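Figure 3 (text version): structure tokens given as input.
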């Protein structure tokens, strides 16, 4: 595509496989999720044109750790996402030829890491607010930007 200037092929077959697990480490209350839980998941995407090939996530979830707040929980997750090596190789070739990189990025894309922390507080029956903070290391999957801080919140309502 880079040297022939031909259009990119359209891929119709994509797939993914994943494995994950969790384990209660410490129990805080009588409920099935009342405690500190460690979890992990690994994903592998098989499509040759997908932007990310692998993702690895590990985290901790603590529910009912605040007395009299059994529905509240806090979670901390760390994820590492690996850019599809086909994209990385294409961008390396473009860079070596002095061409603009795919996707309009400034540097060759390889991986991204994300640290996410959130807290879910139940306000009323069926209504929760979830403030969220993410620190994204290498947000462009390269070395052009160092880190990004993203904050926000969700309001969850079961009607």
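Below: residues designed for each position.
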């Amino acid at each position: 595509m880079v040297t022939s200037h031909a259009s990119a092929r359209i891929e119709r077959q994509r797939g993914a496989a994943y494995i994950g697990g969790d384990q209660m480490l410490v129990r805080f209350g009588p409920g099935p999720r009342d405690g500190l839980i460690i979890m992990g998941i690994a994903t592998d995407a098989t499509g040759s044109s997908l932007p990310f090939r692998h993702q690895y996530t590990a985290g901790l979830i603590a529910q009912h750790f605040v007395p009299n707040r059994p529905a509240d929980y806090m979670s901390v997750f760390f994820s590492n996402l690996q850019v599809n090596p086909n994209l990385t190789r294409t961008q390396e070739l473009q860079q070596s030829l002095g061409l603009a990189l795919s996707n309009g990025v400034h540097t060759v894309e390889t991986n991204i890491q994300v640290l996410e922390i959130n807290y879910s507080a139940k306000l009323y029956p069926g209504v929760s607010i979830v403030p969220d903070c993410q620190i994204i290391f290498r947000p462009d999957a390269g070395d052009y930007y160092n880190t990004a801080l993203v904050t926000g919140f969700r309001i969850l309502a079961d009607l």
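The chain has a mean pLDDT of 89.
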